[in-house]
Amino acid sequence: MTNYLIRRGVQMVLVVFLATIAIYILLNAVPGG
User: Fold this and answer.
1) Residue among 18, 16, 10 at smallest CA distance from 2
2) Residues 6+ apart with CB under 8 A from 27
3) pLDDT digit string (tens) for 9-24?
4) Nearest 10 degrees: CA dihedral of 11, 15, 17, 20?
5) What is the dihedral of CA 31, 25, 22, 14, to 10 degrees?
6) How far apart are the first and last CA of the chain?
7) Residue 22 belongs to what H/E stretch?
8) Is it the case that residue 6 has pLDDT exceeding 60?
9) What is the per-residue pLDDT for 30?
10) What whole-number distance in Å separates Cα of residue 16 and Cα of residue 24?
11) How far apart are CA 15 and CA 33, in angstroms?
């Protein structure tokens, strides 16, 4: 169970990290953004 929770936590952090990078790239890709 502990391994499952650790895996879920790492996965959530990765998803949030990737989403933040994607939003950052999108905002910078917009002209005048």
Assistant:
1) 10
2) 33
3) 999 999 999 999 999 9
4) -170
5) -160
6) 45
7) helix 2-29
8) yes
9) 84
10) 12
11) 24
- The two tokens of residue 9 are 């936590």
Length of the chain: 33
Q: In this structure, what token pair is assigned to residue 17?
A: 């990290």
Six-digit token string for 23:
């939003």
Angle, vertex CA 14, rays to CA 19 and CA 32, nearest 5:
25
pLDDT classification of 26: cutoffs 50, 70, 90? very high
pTM of the model: 0.64
